[in-house]
Amino acid sequence: MRFNRFTGLSVKGAATAVLLLLLQGCAASSLMPGSQPELAFSSGPALPVAAMPEFSVGESFTYDDGSTETVIAVRGDKVTWRSGGGIVRARSKSFFLPVLSWQNRVRRSQTVLTNDGKDMWPLHVGASVRLDERQVAEDNDGSNSREYKRSWECKVKGTEKVTVPAGSFNTYRIECYRYTFDSSYWRQTRVYNYAPDIGYYVVRDDTYVSRPSQRRELVSAGFDSQALPRAEQTSLIQFMNRTMNTSLDGKTLSWKSPGRDLQVQIKVLNTFAAKNGGACRNYLSRYLFSGKARTNQRTVCRRQDGSWGRPETQ
Whole-prediction pTM value? Predict the structure, then answer.
């Protein structure tokens, strides 16, 4: 048996030791802060290629973390959303890209991207995009400005069937990796499960290098009439009040927007008395727009002025 004169191990033992060190080194590097292996390819249901989604004003999505996203404007490839907390964000129809701009009560932000993500569409397994992001955030008066630079890589890694509070969906799995600008230092992984049937994501998973992971799942895909122009809101409210005042339980009445491809059907489900003795009604409202259908279920009660609104907290 031959021995290595530096280690005292046999040649076979030395080779084994080197292999163990290499394997241990690989395992250790995967656990080092700033390094993140790509998630495994997922093989799920067969899906046809998916066209870039189209959004309509009023379209709204609610998630189990309490967040709501409602479309308030569409201009070309840019979609403006309002959150339930009042934050206004503009982003590309390629929803997995970083937000282009946002504003809340005290701060605002503008972002420039080096890629618009259109090469990912029609969406299919294997599609990918790389881009750099330059973000400038400042107070609304222009003070306290800060600049951030990041690099991103997004890939369609497969398909999955997922079940969330809103139901079960066949989805594309899109994995996006954020790195320190101009380096390979990993900072975040964001995974979207995009459901072509509703044209938006039903799950978003975030994993960070130095923050707790976060996950949100779709609760409902609906329509928020408050995003409509004021005149259309007024007309729809008048229709709803007439329906609540005159319609029989189980009957469906319809309203059509005078200015857009939007139809609303209201079906009163049942009528009951509130604790204060006033009348309340449960109803379904079905919104038909741009080839889509969204259904909301609500309860309203008659107010002292004769209008109908959400029940008062008892």
Answer: 0.81
